[in-house]
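Allow me, if you will, to draw on your knowledge of protein folds for a short while. Thank you for your consideration; the sequence and its tokens are set out here:
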Amino acid sequence: MQTASQLLKQKALHSVLAVAPHATVFQALQVLADNNIGAVLVMDEGKLVGIFSERDYARKVVLVGKTSAVTPVAEIMTSRVLCVPPTATASECMAVMSEKRIRHLPVMDGDKVLGVLSIGDLVHAKIAEQEFTIQQLEQYIYR
């Protein structure tokens, strides 16, 4: 079973993408679009203060009639961010995401953000693990 740290190393995007709390929702949406991601961290002077996702935009901007061009991210971001340590297993990460109904999970080593795992990252890891197990079983059977 892979750890969160190992999963982060396999990602194509290794840098930690973030916006400032005073950035507008429009600016945060531009980061999402430019990088083809569904959530971005909100950081203030290197400290994680929140996460902004497409879900936040849909529920806290569009549905309540706010304007993305002037609304600051800090006003609508999710400020209670669930995180895991780099030693968390993929199964532990999936359990947190399933239980809390979230799609993005920051990996932190103390106060340092190492990266963000998405539900897609974890699904890909699980599929790869299962394919490996099947391959091993097939080799065992056909020997």
In short: Helices lie at 4-10, 25-35, 54-62, 73-76, 90-100, 119-141. The two ends are 26 Å apart (CA to CA). Residues 119-141 form the longest helix (23 residues). The mean pLDDT is 92.
